[in-house]
UniProtKB/TrEMBL annotation:
It comes from Spongiactinospora rosea. This is Glycoside-hydrolase family GH114 TIM-barrel domain-containing protein.
Length: 229
């Protein structure tokens, strides 16, 4: 089996069955579909956002929104937000997911005061939802404590990125060097390491996979909206 896939569409059970782990939108799959994937040896991870809310207006939301995806930033330490996220995690696990994919962990440049609250939230999700596997997306401002709470860390856009809705490119050399230094730090942690890169050509995809392998990461390459398997 291939190691991991990130797919934010629906269905495609046969194609997803080629992977050991698949990250999926939690509401896009039924209990029956998740059972099929589990029977085929696939560990399903349900998407969970920890610092952005795409739902209706709520008291834990900040006025600011993510300019790329439109979700409202939140006060991570608000007890009502914590209860909301934990409830989402419990529902995903009850539906049959094998674990959770923790997204929107990069608060060090926007709301660094919320980093301790974010660690508390991750610990609450782990304890109260009981996932078999937790995969964190980046969250480098939470290191090294994060590595004690999760099983794996994903370096999204490690080597290549989308630059607009139509184009993809490798990072400039100075950014690649910064990413490499972070990757070397990750190698010293006792967690599984993955990379997710974005590309629209075989050449760029091969560059991303090769470079990820040099830093001990298993790499998956897709498009901006994760519609390719």
């Amino acid at each position: 089996m291939l190691p991991i896939a990130f797919y934010y569409g629906a269905g495609e059970l046969d194609r997803l069955s080629r992977f050991g782990k698949v990250v999926l939108q939690a509401d896009f799959y039924t209990e029956g579909e998740l059972s099929v994937l589990k029977a085929r040896g696939v560990q399903t991870l349900g998407y969970l956002s920890l610092s952005e809310d795409v739902g209706p207006p709520a008291p834990w939301q900040r006025p600011e929104r993510n300019p790329d995806w439109g979700g409202a930033f939140v006060h991570v330490g608000d007890p009502r937000w914590i209860a909301h996220v934990v409830a989402q995690a419990r529902r995903a696990m009850a539906r049959g997911f094998g674990g959770l994919f923790l997204d929107t962990l990069n608060l060090e440049q926007t709301y660094p005061e919320d980093l301790p609250h974010l660690l508390t939230l991750i610990a609450a999700v782990k304890e109260e939802a009981g996932p078999d596997y937790l995969l964190a997306n980046r969250g480098f401002g939470l290191l090294p404590e994060l590595a004690d709470l999760v099983d794996g860390i994903l370096f999204e856009s490690f080597s290549a990125r989308w630059v607009n809705t139509d184009g993809y490119a490798r990072w400039p050399d100075d950014v690649l060097e910064v990413h490499a230094s972070v990757a070397e730090r990750l190698l010293g942690l006792d967690v599984d390491l993955y990379a997710l890169d974005y590309a629209d050509s075989d050449e760029l995809a091969d560059f991303a996979r090769r470079r990820a392998g040099e830093y001990g990461m298993l790499c998956f390459v897709s498009d901006r909206v994760l519609s390719r398997i």
